[in-house]
């Protein structure tokens, strides 16, 4: 089942491809129309991580995932998945990778269970003797046991997405690749998928998931890569990425207009007033001086501090632009 062939010995992760489940070097895709969708991508996804692939719509995430899965050829550069080159080793690699890309393909007239049975039967590496048991376990895993006998066309979007995840879980996987797994779900459905992703990761499966939702990445991912216009802007542990951005200075005061004026005089950038909260970019200089200036100007300071930077702050700091491109 998906073992390395004699002609292409499997490299241990850490050799030649660097220490990663997914490693790309100068990976580039230019579509026929001339669109440079992915530009010189250097990605390293550590084993056991929940890796968020983050970027606004059109930043090249799906194109990258399609190259990783061997669905399209890169224009130049290399992609290794589980230590082997793609798309050349797709036949050996893909059985050990569970993927959910661009929504699950389902037969509406079949029940959820029958969809999985059929899907599994189409997989030449799947053992028919264990099929029913594996399908039942996957349904249980995603919380669809009670609805397993219902026709898939009667499923909600969230249930369809869960069924798609179940199809990725029919066999033990070292890597799960999920393209926008919460797209189109309501907040409850999103929470459920996030919980599921965390559970899968706690079993040791590396999860690579793309998202255009910053808070989603912050909530579930240990690591992230940030894309913008086909290029990698940053990657690393989520905590370090967020720490790379300065937080925001927050002043709580009944005198917000005066506070804003003083902060601006003190050279604080991006001062924003919202009710009694005045915020600005945290300065590099001593905050005690800023506080003293507020007090000296007669501003009644009720609260003063720096809020931890979010990944969104990091993104804005890195790209100089907001994240909401197309929702
Ligand atoms: N088959 C294609 N032919 C030509 N251009 C394409 C093709 N697929 C995508 N593109 C372009 O490549 C760029 C990257 O698209 P891609 O779908 O990879 O981005 P994305 O980050 O996954 O965005 P989304 O979240 O909207 O899917 C976009 O400018 C897109 O218009």
Structural class: alpha/beta
Mean pLDDT: 86
- Counted by DSSP, the helix tally is 11
Largest sheet: 6 strands, mixed
Classify the fold: give the CATH topology of the largest domain: Rossmann fold
CATH top level label of the largest domain: Alpha Beta
Order of helices and strands: EEEHEEHEHHHEHEHEEHEHEEHEH
The unique ligands bound to this protein are: adenosine-5'-triphosphate
Give start-end ranges of low-pLDDT stretches.
Answer: 1-17
How many beta strands in the DSSP annotation? 14
What is the straight-line distance between the termini? 41 Å
Strand content: 15-25%
Percent helix:
25-40%
- Rg from C-alpha positions? 24 Å
- The CATH architecture term of the largest domain is 3-Layer(aba) Sandwich
Features:
327 residues, alpha/beta, Rossmann fold, four-stranded antiparallel beta sheet
Q: What does the model show?
A:
The protein is an alpha/beta fold and 327 residues long. The chain has 2 domains: 22-243, Rossmann fold (3-Layer(aba) Sandwich); 248-308, Alpha-Beta Plaits. Helices cover 31% and strands 24% of the residues. It has 11 helices and 14 strands. The protein has helices at 61-68, 90-93, 112-121, 131-141, 157-168, 187-202, 214-220, 238-243, 256-265, 287-296, 311-319; strands at 22-30, 36-45, 50-54, 76-81, 84-86, 97-100, 175-179, 206-211, 223-228, 231-237, 248-252, 272-274, 277-281, 303-307. The strands form 3 sheets. A 6-stranded mixed sheet has the order 6-7-8-3-9-10, with helices on both faces. It has a 4-stranded antiparallel sheet with strand order 2-1-4-5, covered by helices on one side. Strand 9 (223-228) and strand 10 form a beta hairpin. Helix 3 packs across helix 4 and helix 3 packs parallel to helix 5 (157-168).
């Amino acid at each position: 089942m998906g073992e390395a062939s004699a002609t292409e010995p499997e490299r241990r992760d850490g050799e030649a491809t660097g220490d990663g489940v997914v490693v790309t070097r100068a990976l580039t895709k230019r579509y026929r129309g001339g669109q440079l969708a992915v530009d010189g991508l250097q990605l390293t996804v550590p084993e056991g991580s929940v890796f968020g692939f983050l970027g606004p719509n059109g930043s090249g995430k799906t194109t990258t995932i399609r190259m990783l899965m061997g669905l399209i050829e890169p224009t130049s550069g290399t992609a290794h998945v589980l230590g082997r080159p793609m798309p050349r080793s797709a036949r050996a690699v893909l059985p050990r990778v569970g993927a959910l890309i661009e929504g699950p393909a389902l037969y509406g007239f079949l029940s959820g269970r029958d969809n999985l049975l059929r899907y599994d039967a189409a997989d030449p590496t799947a053992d028919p003797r264990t099929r029913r048991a594996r399908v039942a376990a996957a349904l249980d895993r995603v919380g669809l046991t009670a609805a397993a006998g219902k026709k898939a066309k009667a499923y909600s979007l969230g249930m369809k997405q869960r069924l798609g995840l179940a199809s990725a879980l029919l066999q033990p996987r070292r890597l799960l690749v999920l393209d926008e797994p919460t797209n189109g779900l309501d907040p409850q459905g999103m929470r459920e998928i996030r919980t599921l992703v965390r559970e899968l990761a706690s079993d040791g499966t590396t999860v690579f998931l793309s998202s255009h939702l910053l808070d989603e990445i912050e909530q579930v991912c240990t690591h992230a890569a940030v894309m913008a216009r086909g290029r990698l802007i940053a990657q690393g542990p989520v905590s370090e990425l967020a720490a790379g951005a300065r937080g925001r200075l927050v002043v709580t005061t009944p005198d917000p207009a005066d506070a804003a004026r003083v902060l601006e005089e003190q050279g604080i950038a991006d001062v924003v007033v919202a009710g009694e909260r005045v915020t600005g970019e945290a300065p590099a200089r001593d905050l005690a001086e800023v506080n003293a200036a507020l007090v000296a100007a007669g501003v009644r300071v009720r609260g003063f501090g720096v809020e931890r930077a979010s990944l969104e702050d990091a993104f804005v700091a890195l790209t100089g632009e907001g994240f909401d491109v197309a929702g």
